[in-house]
Amino acid sequence: MLTGATRARRHGQRGFTLLEVLVAVVILSVGLLGLAGLQAQSLRANQSALFLSQANLLAYDIVDQLRANRDAARSGDYDIALGFDADGVGNGGVAGDHISEWYERINDKLPMLEGQTGGSIAVDNDRRATIIVRWYDERASRDPDDALREVAVVTQL
C-alpha cells in the first residue's frame, strides 16, 4: 500500500514542468536565430565572392583580347578611362567592338553604380597593360560609401 509521502514523490517525477519546457524552447530559439544569422552572412559572402570571380574573369578576358590585337593595343586603340561611355564605340573597328562587348558583359555580370563603376584599360610605352574592373557591392560592406570594389590586372603585352 502506498503512503501519502510515496504517492507525492511519484507525482513529482511524472514529467517536465511548464517552466522547464519554456526554458528549453527559449534556448532552442536562440540557437536557431544564431544559425539564421550565420546563413545570411554566408549568402552575403558567397555573393561577394561570385562578383570577385566574375570581375577577375572579365579582366583576363580583355587581356586575351589585347594580346590577340597587340598592334592596336600598343597604339592606344583600347585605352579607356573609368566611367567611359561605351555606347557607339562598337563602330570603331575591332578594338571598339571588343571594348563595347566587354562593357556589356561588365554591366550584365556586376552590379553597377552610375559614373563610378565599369572598367578601364591603359597601355603604357613599356607595353604594360593595366586593366581595372570596378563594381558596386553593397553586401560586402555595411557602409555604402565603402561598397566600391575593384580588381586590377597588370600584364605585359
UniProtKB/TrEMBL annotation:
Enumerate the UniProt keywords alphabetically. Answer: Membrane, Transmembrane, Transmembrane helix
Q: Which residues cross the membrane?
A: 16-38
Instruction: Decide whether keyword Transmembrane helix is in the record.
Output: yes
Protein's name in the database: Type IV pilus assembly protein PilV
Organism for this UniProt entry: Natronocella acetinitrilica
